[in-house]
């Protein structure tokens, strides 16, 4: 059975109750939410200035709160973050001063967003965070926290409302405070996602084209392997460096500018690993554009084929898959009515995304469950809206 997705109203009510419990005699006055994402295709291409095709999820992070009368700033999270405290007290930075990364780790996303927020000064505030995005599952729980928090701050102290600059500020928060050198995809789609559409994002120009994805005969299934290998964060930075090295050897600003012909022409200048990384990226950028065209035409078979090619390339050339993800993809592909399946996100665990005919969903879930050795969880999802302020009743 697929896991139920909590409604927005349910999350807001949970956050508001926790707020009233934490801050007796106070009620939240403002609220905001931002979604997690699933990437349909275009993996490890964003930091190479290529294309990606993600969609925003109905799984979201919600922040509720109020300006504080005494000027103090307190943030409480309802989520389990290992053994870390769930409450942090912050001193907001003054003009020119910094809010440095510190424990607990989860609060660094928030510290980073405050640090990079594009208007000053910020008043003190109290806030509570709840989320239905699984933590560390490759569905951008961190980007949804950053963007939800930014959207919350916009109501406390409005900035100029520039959405691209907002996504970039949240990406910066992740770089400087969570110390993850991520690309722009997750924050971008969390800010700009549109209901019923995937977004074809050009990560160089930061332009996005919405691609309709609301066929009732089609389902997007997310399967969480519920494993996360420790290589995930260290290897991400390594991949980024390898791509930069490949681009520099090819004499290009980024791999976005390189063709297969460029790569083959310089093959003897690259070691085997760097060559394979570049090969994945160059082909994946091309596949993503083709996949968006296939989706526009409703050519799901072609789209599915490209998803599988993407997975195989991530497994064989980019080396970011793992046995669990490979097993989930193989199991999904055995079901009649499944168009395509692949790992999604950074890799080394987390989730797969599968495109299939709506009427085979139960059979697909049952088959994957039987074939997978671990304990998977399933979400049946639809492309949802990006971040927004919420009205509290
Ligand atoms: C993570 C990063 C993204 C992107 C993907 C891989 O999710 O946050 O920027 O690079 O990995 O496509």
Detailed description of the structure:
This protein is of the alpha+beta class and 393 residues long. It contains eleven helices and twelve strands. It has helices spanning 8-22, 107-116, 141-156, 163-176, 185-192, 231-249, 260-265, 272-297, 300-316, 323-333, 361-371, and strands at residues 30-41, 51-67, 73-77, 87-90, 125-131, 197-202, 207-212, 218-228, 338-344, 349-357, 377-381, 388-390. Strands 1, 2, 3, 4, 5, 6, 7 and 12 form an eight-stranded mixed β-sheet that branches. The chain has a four-stranded antiparallel β-sheet with strand order 9-10-8-11. A hairpin with a 4-residue loop joins strand 9 and strand 10 (349-357). Helix 3 (141-156) crosses helix 5, helix 6 crosses helix 8 (272-297) and helix 8 (272-297) packs antiparallel against helix 9. The radius of gyration is 21 Å and the shape is globular. The structure holds alpha-D-galactopyranose. Alpha-D-galactopyranose is lined by residues 39, 43-44, 46-47, 182-183, 185-186, 345-346.
Helix % is: 25-40%
- Termini, distance in Å? 33 Å
Note poorly predicted spans: none
Overall average residue pLDDT: 95
Structural class: alpha+beta
The set of bound ligands, ions and cofactors reads: alpha-D-galactopyranose
**Overall geometry:** globular
Count the strands? Answer: 12
Q: Outline the biggest β-sheet.
A: 8 strands, mixed
Give me the Rg, rounded.
21 Å
Number of helices: 11
| Element-by-element helix/strand order | HEEEEHEHHHEEEHHHHHEEHEE
Strand percentage: 15-25%
